[in-house]
Amino acid sequence: MHTPRRQFLIGSTAALAATALPGRLNAAALTADTGTHDAASAFIAAHAGVFDAARRHAFLLPEGFAVVHDVPFPLDHDAYGDHLAFHRESWERLEFMPQQLQTLTVNADNAVVSCYFLERGKPRDAGFRLRAGFATATCVSVAGEWHALSVHFSPLRSQILDASP
Questions:
Q1: What is the SS3 assignment for 60?
Q2: What is the pLDDT along the chain (165 residues), one digit of tens a residue?
C-alpha cells in the first residue's frame, strides 16, 4: 500500500525519469534522506519563510512547470511568474513553513524534495488564512546550482476552511 506521500514521490520520480534522465531509471539507486541534500537546501531557500515571489520564480527552471493548489491546471515558467506576482499583490503577509522535509536522491544531479507545509497569511482586505498541504519539487543541478524542473503544491484534506470572515 502506498501512502499519499509515497504516491507523490513516485509521480515526481517518474516525471524526473521521463524528462531529465537519459536512459532508464535504476530504482535500486534511489536513496531517501531527511533533507540534508543540497536540493532540499535550495528548496528551503526559495520557499521557506516570508513569501518572496522573485526567489520562488528563480528556483523554477525556464523549461519547468508548476502545479499549485489554487489554480486547476499546470503553469509554465511565465504563467507561474504571473501567478506569483498576483500573490505578491494580494497578500499583506504570507508565510510558507515546510515540515518533515525529505529528499529522494536519484543521482548527483537529480533529486526529489518533498514536505508537508503550513501556509499562513493575511490577504489584503480580508481575514487570516491558514492552509495545510504537501509539496514536491523535482530538482536538477544546473551548473552547480539546484533548481526545480517541476514544483507541485497540493492542499490536504485537513485544510482549514473559513478561518476568518
A1: strand
A2: 445 444 444 455 444 444 444 444 444 445 555 445 789 999 999 999 999 999 999 999 999 999 998 888 999 999 999 999 999 999 999 999 999 999 988 888 899 999 999 999 999 888 888 889 999 999 999 998 999 999 999 988 655 555 554
The span from the CA of 40 to the CA of 138, in Å, is 10
Q: Is the pTM of this model over 0.70?
A: yes
Task: Look at phi and psi of residue 23 and say left if phi exceeds 0, alpha if psi is from -120 to 50, else beta.
Answer: left
Show the beta-strand stretches assigned E in the chain. Answer: 31-33, 49-50, 60-67, 75-76, 91-107, 110-123, 129-142, 145-155
CB of 103 closer than 8 Å to CB of 44: no
Give the three cell numbers for residue 98.
515546510
